[in-house]
Amino acid sequence: MKVRSMWAGMMTLVLLIVCLAGCGNKLTAEQILEKATEKQQTMDGMDADIKMSMSMQAEGETVDYDVTMKMKESGITTESPKMAMQMDMNILGQSIRMNTYYTEGYSYTEAMGQKMKMAMDLSEMSERLKQNSAFMEIQADAYQSLELTEEGNHYVIDFEADGDKMNELAETLLDSMMSNALGDAGDFQMSVGEVQGVLTIDKDFNIVKQEMRMDMTMTVEDTDVSVALDMDMDVNNPGKEVEVELPDDLDTYEEISDSFGQ
Fold first, then answer.
1. Overall pTM > 0.90
2. What radius of gyration do the chain's Cα atoms show?
3. Which end of the chain has fewer beta carbons closer than 10 Å to its terminal beta carbon, N or C?
4. Res 255: pLDDT
């Protein structure tokens, strides 16, 4: 009996040590986000499907604007990046499809029966890519709360962010969306309110899905506008090499000096 009691006690102690060791090594939401951010910064390509919906209310009227994008990028960290993006926009009941490509120092746009190309250096291209995936770049100090769960082979992080610290990101997103939809929207001031979202990250710390909801108020030409912005992104084959396919007729695009819609 003494031997059995001794072995039972030893097994209990071993199990306790294993449990404590496992609990001590468990990653926190902050650590997972840090690793995912580091992984994101080293990515050389991305294949993503993005949906954005914006509802604007002003002076008793509402305007809804929806965008879906299929985007592929490669060579992001090199001097020879490539991009192919299909963008479908719906605003005021009008549907517009725009195809945009980038290769060898030129941006190519096909929309409304026109094909145009424009010289664009690497810094300009980097800024465009930043706008397309801007909501993946939330700064660490902007998160107010993080709640971590695990679903299968994925970490799922529900977050709330500080609206005051999200103004720059929101301005980038709005400037891109409004210029695409409405041309030059001019200067506007804004204040971000509630920001909530969900990040899904795989065990290799690749971001595979991101959802974000953002409410804000902006002032355009002395008119206050309430804006609700919803964004969802799914990353296809995260961590894998991305191949960007370009059309064969890029040499037929007419060169212009200004970007489309500006």
1. no
2. 23
3. N
4. 95
Instruction: Tell me whether strands 254-255 and 114-119 are parallel, antiparallel or unpaired.
Output: parallel
Contact 197, 161 (CB under 8 A): yes
Sign of the CA dihedral running 112, 116, 118, 123: positive
Please give the pLDDT value at position 151: 93
**Coil, strand, or helix at residue 4?**
helix
d(CA 174, CA 192): 12
Which parts of the chain sit beneath pLDDT 50? Answer: 3, 16-22, 24, 134, 181-185, 259-262
CA distance 93 to 176: 20
Beta strands in the chain, from DSSP E residues, in sequence order: 46-58, 61-74, 82-91, 94-103, 106-111, 114-119, 143-151, 154-161, 189-202, 207-220, 223-235, 254-255
* Nearest partner of 161 among 143, 135, 141, 134, judged by Cα: 143
Contact of 81 with 125, CB cutoff 8 Å: yes
Residue 179 has what pLDDT? 52
CB-neighbour burial class of residue 5 (10 A; exposed 0-12, middle 13-18, buried 19+): exposed
| Contact present, 128 and 173 (Cβ < 8 Å) | no
Residues 6 or more apart whose Cβ sits within 8 Å of residue 35: 27, 205
How distant, in Å, are the alpha carbons of 47, 98, 118, 119 from that of 253? 25, 14, 9, 12
Q: Under a CB-based contact definition with an 8 Å cutoff, are residues 198 and 211 in contact? A: yes
pLDDT, position 207: 92
Q: How is residue 99 written in tokens?
A: 């195809």
In order, the DSSP letters of 78-135 are: SSS-EEEEEEEEEETTEEEEEEEEEETTEEEEEETTEEEEEE--HHHHHHHHHHHTGG
